[in-house]
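Thanks for the sequence, V.! I ran Vacuolar import/degradation Vid27 C-terminal domain-containing protein right away. Repeating your input here for the record:
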Amino acid sequence: MGTAQSREDRITDSESDEDYEEEEEEEEQYDDALSDHQNTQSSSSTSTSSGTQKSLDDIDAKLKSLKLKYNSQQSSPNLKNPVKLYLHIGGNTPKAKWVISEKLTSYSFTKENGDNDENCWFLEVGTKVRVRVSTEMQLKMFGDQKRVDFVDKAVWALKFLSDEEYRNFVTQFQNCLFENVYGMEASEENKVKVYGKEFIGWMKPEVADDSMWEDADDLSSGSIPVKGNRELMEEFEEAANGGVQSLALGALDNSFLVNDLGVQVYRNFNRGIHGKGICVKFDAGGSRIGGSPSSSTPKKALLMRAETNMMLMSPENEGKPNATGLKQVDIETGKIVTEWKFEKDGADITMRDITNDTKGSQLDPSESTFLGLDDNRLCQWDMRDRKGMVQNIATSDSPVLHWTQGHQFSRGTNFQCFASTGDGSIVVGSIDGKIRLYSKTSMRQAKTAFPGLGSPITHVDVTYDGKWVLGTTDTYLVLICTLFTDKDGKTKTGFSGRMGNKIPAPRLLKLTPLDSHLAGNNNKFHGGHFSWVTENGKQERHLVATVGKFSVIWDFQQVKNSAHECYRNQQGLKSCYCYKIVLKDESIVESRFMHDNFAVSNSPEAPLVVATPMKVSSISLSGRR
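Predicted structure:
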């Protein structure tokens, strides 16, 4: 399992020449005809016979027909921005290869009106390529080859004639991308406006202090090393009865799938999850768990109280995640315990997401609080009454969750997603790309706010120790190191204090242009997660995200390694392209690693669970080669 190695890593002209032989033969005919033409012209000054004139006309006609097949720029010695253009064919099959599309052409960055009538930068290459400059191009750099690859309805490569021309192109591309994203010229002054002075390493990665990445690497050296070339083995695959909406993994005996019928129960094993044939139906007393009979299927499931209870949240309106309340299900009896309302100061409010107080609090049998997030709200909810007693559901007409702490921001935060650390600190991702870190003691003001890179954060996760944050965008994942050294020389995280000026530059996790193209034009990254640990001293070992029919797995240790081969010859933020892919036959709903409890001795990781609308699979990193 996992993708075969594509032939995208290196382009050799010999590889493409055989596909260009026919055109080369025509070029030779052109050269021969041109030579004949020149010879005939010199002899025509001494010969005026009709045969000679006829021969001259024939040669001129031949020249004209051949010349039409070639771009006139190809023979121009003063061609501006010259490049070779290649096209990748054959996908990821054994016959995959690069072919020459244009042996010599030129590129330009032009400013034009886009689809939304906005004035933005486009990249044009000869007559074959015209694409808006954006992260959706998935541009990948190969500095040692003086080459870039990108996607525009197909996978293309540009090879430059000199290192200077290659670097000029990359600089122009990054400047145009900045302007398209932020609507301002990529000047030093504007970059400071966007990122702030303390984030100098984000706008100038070449001067960033990477020492924290190395220190963090040393701090986690006690974890089990992950060796390369591990096989991904499918242990279980079962039908999921259709309509899978979400996956709730347990750290104890059971895990759960929420689908259109109800909540399906699975047994946890060291090799994955296996169906128990039990389904908690949504119908209860004539109403669905989602709310009224017409309400939508729950999209969010949260385990609580030693995984004996589950909170289910359904969107109030189709197409939007915000909900006005949730249902509490007793998993052991299969019954709805109550329906809770979200309320503050006597007024009904909505929540777009909920999560546990800490990474491991779902294992606490007495857990009665959880966190809530809305567009401009961050809070903690309590299921007990104000006197500290659990509410008596039987005598309560419409139980109301108590807002115990939090903050309702006036405007502009546009929160999208959040997650908690092992000690209850909170990371929040926003639509403007910002990632905020809140300490466990205050939700009013972020201790650290990382600037956005131009793409909305759709999902966020954090390691148990709070040292690493993973943000998901549509086209890449961003990995942030939160460690810094305070004025007393102590190493802290950005959850506990302001990080100052020596903030490490983030690293990006991307698909290669070829894999991005194979994943599909409209497929986007979603649900980036670390593997799951709930103990101090244990280190997460992998990261996983989903795009289309792909589950993509990165080796965490490899991503953190500054000497990793992916980072050589790159300009800008370091981007990692080393990963394994689990390919399914339908779009994947969610991919999550099981709890570290289920990692066996010959495997570097607990099994990966992959849910599609119709099936659920368990994948092990077996260690077999």
